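Agenda item 2: thiamine diphosphate complex prediction
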Amino acid sequence: MEQQERVPGCPSEKETVLFIHMYRMMRRIRRFEEVAADLVAAGEVKCPCHLYIGQEAIAVGVCAALEPEDTIWGNHRSHGHYLAKGGDLHAMMAEILGRETGCAGGRGGSMHLVAKEVGILGTVPIVAGTIPLAVGAGLAYKLQGKRHVAAAFFGDGATEEGHFFESVNLAALYRLPVIFVLENNLYASHMHLSERRPLDNLDQIGGLFGIPSIRLDGNDVLAVYRAAVEAASRARTGQGPSLLECRTYRWRGHVGHRWDEDVGVKRRDELQEWLDRCPLARFRRSLLKWGVSEDQLNALEEEVEKEVESALQFARQSPLPGPETVGEYVYV
Ligand SMILES: Cc1ncc(C[n+]2csc(CCOP(=O)(O)OP(=O)(O)O)c2C)c(N)n1
Ligand SMILES: [Mg+2]
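Presented output:
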């Protein structure tokens, strides 16, 4: 970074290094998703893909606050969670193309990502399905005396499942080291929050169980990061779980590459407003303001572009699982 006069509120050099890394992660997710959208449109990706574009700040903000040994759990829309926690880009590209080299051997597709070596213990499309699993991991850490944290990423729709409440209750009661990351993108499939709930008050859920529960601008990566640092620190010091309601917006359709402008009560009018609140553009502007050079960011973006191209080439050249392996992994 060039020597600049420090303006108040300007991050330290160490923070700037972290923030540039976070921007790279956001950019990697965005670019992966754009390429995945094109592959879906072209029919090259056969599995359903629920794109994370627009929500990048949440995965990146939370994962930047976690340690490598901490674990995360995701849902059907988890490409971003996987990359943010350090999952291998090539292995995810191969997975969505159903290749043997994929992170789940090409058998899981977009909705079943796993990378134990970096703490991604599973993404599962059963809505709310991994929330109790994160609580189970938290219970294990507590019983084993480990200082790890388990984070569950889930959508607003998942709060409509009963076991979400059972999970928060158990984690609160036993003060388990869990972070509940509620990504409120205002939609569950094609229904807006206002068509599903009488009140827009999901941030109050934690209060019912006596745990911190806050509403955040989920498009502000630093707001998410700071809240996650606090939640992780509480978890590690035996103070129990926290719930972060991160407000955001799903840019693309529920599943696939389209924009879904014809669904939901207000989506056609509100989409542009949310595009204008792009979490990447916003963070990029902040980095420039803090003295990071345009050249450095352009170079970083170019590197990410090449990485994603290389992942696609790798995936396309990888073999499909052989028919003789069809019975593998079916029975333990
Ligand atoms: C138990 C269960 N019920 C219904 C579905 C079908 N389904 C898949 S995604 C989804 C909506 C989830 O909405 P939300 O949790 O807000 O996540 P988002 O898609 O907005 O990221 C539904 C109903 C499912 N996969 N699992
Ligand atoms: Mg949702």
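Discussion summary: The chain has one domain: 13-314.
Owner for follow-up: CH.
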